[in-house]
Design brief:
By secondary structure, this protein is an alpha/beta fold. The protein has 2 domains: 204 residues, D-Maltodextrin-Binding Protein, domain 2 (3-Layer(aba) Sandwich); 207 residues, D-Maltodextrin-Binding Protein, domain 2. The chain has 19 helices and 13 strands. The strands form 4 sheets. The protein has a 5-stranded mixed sheet with strand order 2-1-3-13-6. A 4-stranded mixed sheet has the order 8-11-7-12. The chain has a two-stranded antiparallel sheet with strand order 4-5. Strand 4 and strand 5 form a beta hairpin. Helix 9 crosses helix 10 and helix 18 packs antiparallel against helix 19. It is globular, with a radius of gyration of 22 Å.
């Protein structure tokens, strides 16, 4: 879910150009020799390609791996894979899927299910919430390759001046908004018309004890359930912030990076965002674009509660690795998955790429604890994180929410009920997004 800073973007571009050149030059390798497994990945700085090469080397010549890079945008990643898999493309041996698409792909028959024995090996030592994102109807169809959870970030000097403690269980969204308004500061959230906005709304609803969709495994017959105490409170929080002086001027178009820019500026006080922002801030100091005093002033806490007597459900992100249903080499692809998603590789990926590991043991590694002083908080937040609705119609569900809740300033008491009606029509085919 994390967006990429300028240095990461340049790395992705360079990697993509190199791979494109390699492919143009007869596919980087001859057709003779061990079977070639094609793995479609979401963009990174080369960490998945490194895993692939390491696994190919460790296979003893059993297979080679060809990396194909998907678009940066998760929606475009889905579209490209759906088109290929709908045509029963046998060249897709493995794929890295955003966590929200596993159910859709599994339900469509696009993925090879893992056997119970494979599931046990693949998920041994993993935190429970990431595993849930790879399940569909009690079967593992995709194994977590990386995970993520949002935290609450705050400026230590400002909260000290205001006399509030964001780490306190009684520190809730209402108090955060009240404090920011009183101090004349801003709360950075993902308010643009995109998936990050859905992430925010879903976290509020779950944290308030509700859910966006009842019985998501029922597919089109699932029941929209935004209307009610949880959805009402979520709407109150979103609408109040949207109309508040604590809302950044760019709220309606703000994604993760815009939110980070406001938070690091003179008026930033609070922000909900992924852990990558801490490493990004330190990189900005190294590049001379941010003062060290800003990094020193950044504090962190668990995602804020909606109600003081109920723990929050931190937004859960990440990606899962799945095997294509039409692969000519499914057994070898499973071997690749078992190698590529091991705890050792997930830990190294967290160090190299800044993307949290789904394994509990990674957070005890001294290197992780040095790089992430909030390692225990990340582990706790992922373990107790709240997934977005696990449904094969996630695109329809998320689209319905985003359409009816954006912009934040327009959200009012009637919005949850309007969403339920809109979503029901979309799921039943009476309305198009």
């Amino acid at each position: 879910m994390a967006l990429f800073g300028s240095r990461r973007a340049r790395s992705i571009l360079a990697l993509g150009t190199a791979l494109a050149s390699c492919i143009a030059m007869s596919g980087c390798s001859s057709d003779s020799g061990p079977p070639k497994l094609t793995w479609y990945i979401n963009p990174d700085n080369g960490g998945q390609a490194t895993r692939a090469q390491q696994c190919a080397d460790a296979s003893g010549g059993a297979y080679r791996v060809d990396i194909q890079i998907l678009p940066t945008d998760a929606t475009q990643q889905r579209e490209q894979l759906v088109r290929r898999l709908a045509a029963k493309d046998s060249s897709i041996d493995a794929m890295s899927l955003d966590v929200v698409y596993t159910a859709e792909f599994a339900n469509a028959g696009f993925l090879r299910p893992f056997t119970p024995e494979e599931q046990a090996r693949l998920t041994d030592g993993m935190l429970p919430a990431p595993i849930e994102t790879g399940m569909w109807k009690d079967t593992l169809f995709a194994t977590p390759i990386k995970s993520n959870a949002q935290l609450l970030w705050y400026r230590k000097s400002l909260v000290a001046k205001a006399g509030v403690d964001p780490t306190s269980p009684t520190f809730i969204w209402d108090e955060m908004q009240k404090t920011a308004v009183e101090q004349g500061k801003k709360i950075s959230v993902p308010g643009a018309r995109y998936e990050g906005f859905m992430v925010w709304i879903n976290a509020l609803v779950l944290s308030a004890g509700g859910q966006i969709l009842t019985d998501p495994e029922a597919g089109k017959d699932a029941v929209p359930s935004m209307a009610g105490p949880a959805g009402d409170k979520a709407a109150e929080i979103v609408g109040t912030l949207g109309r508040s002086p604590a809302a950044p001027a760019d709220l309606t178009v703000a994604q993760e990076e815009q939110a980070r820019a406001v938070f690091q500026g003179d008026n930033g006080m609070f922000m909900v965002n992924w852990p990558y922002i801490y490493a990004a801030a330190r990189t900005a100091v190294e590049e001379g674009t941010l003062d060290q005093s800003v990094v020193d002033d950044i504090g962190w806490a668990r995602y804020p509660r909606v109600f003081a007597d109920r723990e929050s459900a931190p937004p859960l992100g990440g990606a899962n690795m799945a095997i294509g249903a039409y692969s000519k080499h499914p057994d070898l692809a499973v071997q690749l998955a078992e190698c590529a998603t091991s705890v050792e590789k997930a830990t190294q990926y967290m160090l190299d790429e800044g993307e949290p590991s789904p394994f509990a043991a990674s957070y005890d590694d001294p290197r992780i604890r040095e790089a992430y002083p909030f390692a225990d908080l990340i582990r706790e937040s992922i373990a107790q994180g709240g997934p977005r609705p696990i449904t094969p119609f996630y695109v329809d569900v998320a689209g319905s929410v985003i359409n009816t809740w954006h912009p934040a300033e327009s959200v009012g008491p009637q919005t949850p009920a309007d969403t339920d009606s809109f979503m029901a029509d979309v799921l039943s085919g009476k309305r198009l997004l």
